[in-house]
Amino acid sequence: DSISINNLPQIDAYVHFRIRPIKIFFRIENLNSARMNEGFGFTNNFITTPGYAMPGLVMRLGIWWSFVN
Fold it and tell me: How many angstroms separate the CA atoms of 67 and 42, rounded?
């Protein structure tokens, strides 16, 4: 028994801002998991190993704030 898994490369977007005491980032992962069949959605998940799929679209927001005397 052999299983062949073919995946496309992952596409991510990353934006990072820094204004003196504040750092903010916004990251969108797995942009190429978009599916046009049966309506638009991010449900074309990657299969890493049989039975284990990666999540679809993932958005992350990070904020660092430092206080200055």
Answer: 39
The b-or-e profile of 52-67 (16+ CB within 10 A means b, else e) is: eeeebbeeeeeeeeee
Q: How many CB atoms lie within 10 A of CB 1?
A: 2
Q: Which two tokens stand for residue 61?
A: 């927001």
Q: What is the pLDDT of residues 18-66, one digit of tens each?
A: 988 899 999 998 888 887 787 788 777 877 778 888 888 889 999 999 8
Give the number of residues written for the chain: 69
Please, are residues 30 and 46 in contact by the beta-carbon 8 Å criterion? yes
pTM for the full model? Answer: 0.64
